[in-house]
Design goal:
Blueprint lengths: L9 H9 L7 E5 L12 E2 L14 E4 L13 E9 L13 E5 L11 E4 L4 E5 L2 E6 L21 E3 L7 H9 L4 E5 L3 E7 L3 E2 L10 E2 L1 H13 L2 E8 L3 H12 L4 E5 L10 H8 L2 E4 L4 E2 L5 E5 L2 E6 L3 H19 L9 E6 L10 E11 L2 E6 L9 H5 L2 E5 L11 E6 L10
Parallel strand pairs: 4-5, 11-14, 11-15, 12-13, 15-19, 17-21, 20-22
Antiparallel strand pairs: 1-10, 2-9, 3-5, 3-6, 4-8, 7-8, 16-18, 18-19, 20-24, 21-22, 21-23, 23-24
Helix pairs in contact: 3-6, 4-5
Length: 420
Amino acid sequence: MNLSRKPVQINEVIERIWEHHNPGMTEIVAIEDNTDRFLGEDIIAKTDVPAFDKSPYDGFALRAEDTAWASSENRIEFEVIDKIGAGSVSHKRIGGHQAVRIMTGAPIPSGCDTVIMLELVKEIERDGKNFIQITRKLKKGDNISFRGEDIKSGTLLVRKGTKINPGIQSLLATFGYKKLAVMRKPKIGVLATGDELLNVEEPLVPGKIRNSNSYMIVEQIKRSGAKAIHYGKIPDTFTATYDALHKAIAEVDMMITIGGVSVGDYDYMPKVYEALGADILCNKIAMRPGSVTTIASLDGKLLYGLSGNPSACYVGFELFARPIIRHSLGSNKPFLKKVKAILDVDFPKANPFTRFVRSKLFTGGTQLFVAPIGMDKSNIIFSLAYANCLMVLPGGTRGYKKGMEVEVLLLEDHEGSDLF
Ligand code: AMP
Ligand code: MG
């Protein structure tokens, strides 16, 4: 059993886990049921949009050439020979100095090549017939929404793996996707270990804490697009841990356990992974928080033994589990999106390892600024509630100063990055 703990560099950890990634599968859902889902197929335009030349205004469709001599001194009169609303088609063919009353969205009648807005004409009724008078010259093509001007048939509109947003939903409906392929949500098991843990509904007693990490990780899993399966909590014994994991792993695509990965007397997780026959990919990572994270693979499934310290647990998931989940949801940008920002305070803490600081990114003028939230200790829960990013402070320095440029990983973004 090799449980010596040599810190592995973050990029090396990602390379090792990437060998066990799963490309993911698709399933068919109704358009109404695709909230929070990721496209399982490219969306390609099936028709031109608009599919026909149409009027963008309520007005009158006519021939531009008939307006050539129109001016405020020279009113030109047109006979109104038909009237159409959106959804109707005019079957009349217009001739010289004739017009069709047309509403927004209705197809341009054949023979017409321009539209004048309702507000710009004078309407007259004479001998039971309707006429309009125009005082301005129109150009051919004025005020027409042309066929295909929005989308050309055959265009690749949105790629597989993109999170479905309201605009994408509109495209799907436009092209008649009553059903569509979305990526199947991977099932991620969550199991907490620790004799000190209480269920959320239990009253506090001395020495005990409520199992808050499981709820946090379940929400991180959902935010990443996967389905979480909550396996509750177990005491710190080898047998309980082994049995619970053995059962859960068979039911999920990825397993996350919380706690028990440190070097304490009751930290059984690495030994349980070995006993299960899992291949340990790393059991210490060169980072803060979360250096005692253990990651293993068993039968093509990744097992994450995250530290029980809330922030270590949070960061470990975002850095190492989320990209694998995103990849299996079809994304070619599975990593957290990275931006540069100006550090808004001094950060004097030196560290040999790269530090991921729960932080708030904010704008000041045209510049992005970042500042840590609260205390930077791995047991702190409060800061997680307000973190919208993780500030990345590479190790091996004497700390950082206000005004320095730093990299920041966005936690609430759905676009992602192709590189860590
Ligand atoms: P461990 O990783 O098991 O050594 O736990 C490290 C610290 O995190 C200890 O203070 C634990 O009490 C705490 N902790 C462990 N599991 C949880 C959990 N599920 N929810 C909240 N805190 C936890
Ligand atoms: Mg523990």
